[in-house]
Amino acid sequence: MAVTQSHGLATRGCAEGSMRKSEFRKILLKQALLQKKAKALLIVLATAMGASVLAALLNLQVDLRYRMNRELRDYGPNVMLLPNERIHSTYIEESDISGLNGERILALTPEVLSAAQLKDETAVLVGADLEALPKLYPGWKFDPAPNANSICYIGVRLAKKLQISKGAPLELNVYGKSFQTTVSGTLESGEAEDDEIYLPLKTAQQITGNENRYQLVELSVLGEIADVEKRFGNFAKAHPDVSFQLIRKIATAEAGILDKISRLMSLVLLIIFVTLFFCINTTVSTILLSRQAEIALFRVLGARRTQITKELTLELLTLGCLGGVLGYVAGIAMAQLLGKILFQTWIEPRFSIFLITVFSSLAMMVLSSVLPVRRAVNREAALVLKEA
Questions:
Q1: Cβ distance 62 to 32 under 8 Å?
Q2: In this structure, are 135 and 240 located in the same domain?
Q3: Helix/strand/coil for 59
Q4: Are 168 and 271 in a shared domain?
Q5: Among 62, 153, 173, 251, which one is least packed by beta carbons within 10 Å?
Q6: What is the total count of domains within the chain?
Q7: Residue 252 lies in a domain
């Protein structure tokens, strides 16, 4: 039946003894898309399955580094600004950090440090933006959370030593001067901060005589190590009195985790490409095997091998493009589901991923079908028609 249909279409396409390219192309595409719907659908589904996983993982991989980088900010600040020792700077002026802003800086706080005497204990006094501390140190426990009215936080270990609780008055002695304050709450980090006292930045500056200047600035910044270094290297060039330092323990740990995840994702993508290659190769080989008689008939009617090869490739590319588009749509749905499960947020679709997915589907279709098409076209037409 297929041979009879092909014979009728082909005969009309070469009424003058030769088959025009445009008519030949229409005949093959019509054969593939309309009269062989089941076989065309099989190729589209094979391509769409691989393309959907590819699109989902690519969208996840692109978002993964950004979202994981944001999640890993729970480790604490990863950048510190300090006075430039090379030019013997001892403080950072307020004007030096006026340009620090941008969406990639999650939080920052300037700090003023001093020793303070309270009762029989000597403790480190830290002036900082109290409301920024929970953003810089999500792992710290504040009781209660700092707000605009907070005036003093004390480490839990120091509070226990001094038997001080929330709301209790506190007298500090700094540089021989006495200062009265009230404990707004406690903080617990499990580190040296549990023995420190935290005051609002302006208050600490007044007590220590460091108005409009700081001893350091802590920042939590999104980005890869190289990007962060480049950005703050440029910042330091624009502000010679300031130097910067990456907190290597945190930054290196983050980079190691992100690199391992990226390598894992790349390995999964490679496995998907190999699987997709064999899947399409097997599908195309099976379908072309069933169309041997049709291809042989076109050969007998005057079509050249190169002409048949080009038109079969065009047919497969059309099906591959359709499969790539459908796979991308399904992949975005998969990515959204995985993003909601893993990160409790939606994954942002990207047009670049769409282009990569469709191009990859087309490339994989070409690579997978080269041998099957060549085998199908190069078989002896007379022998194939005799067997049919």
A1: no
A2: yes
A3: helix
A4: no
A5: 173
A6: 2
A7: no
| Helix, strand or coil, per DSSP, at residue 15 | coil
In a domain, 251, yes or no: no
Does residue 212 share a domain with residue 90?
yes
* Residues forming a β-bridge with 198: 126, 153
The rounded Cα 175 to chain-centroid distance in angstroms is 50
> 149-174 burial by CB neighbour count: b if 16+ within 10 A, else e?
ebebbbbbbbbeebebeeeeebebeb
Contacts 24+ apart (CB under 8 A), 95-101: 96/239, 96/241, 96/242, 97/214, 97/217, 97/242, 99/235, 99/238, 99/239, 100/217, 100/219, 100/235
Q: In angstroms, rounded to a whole number, what is the distance separating the alpha carbons of residues 328 and 9?
A: 35
301 phi/psi in degrees, rounded to 5: -80, 0
pLDDT at 11: 42
Q: In terms of residue numbers, what domain contains 148?
A: 78-246
105 shares its domain with 223: yes
User: What is the per-residue pLDDT for 16?
Assistant: 41
Q: What is the pLDDT of residue 101?
A: 75
- Identify the CA nearest to 116 among candidates 217, 218, 208: 208
- Within a domain: 88: yes
Looking at residue 203, its pLDDT comes to: 93
**Residue 103 sits in a domain of what CATH number?**
2.40.70
pLDDT for res 330: 92
Q: What is the pTM of this model?
A: 0.62
| Residues pairing with 217 in the sheet | 81, 110
Low-confidence ranges of the chain (pLDDT < 50): 1-19
If asked whether residues 223 and 242 sit together in one domain, one would say yes
Distance, in Å, from the CA atom of 208 to the CA atom of 214, rounded to the nearest integer, reads: 11
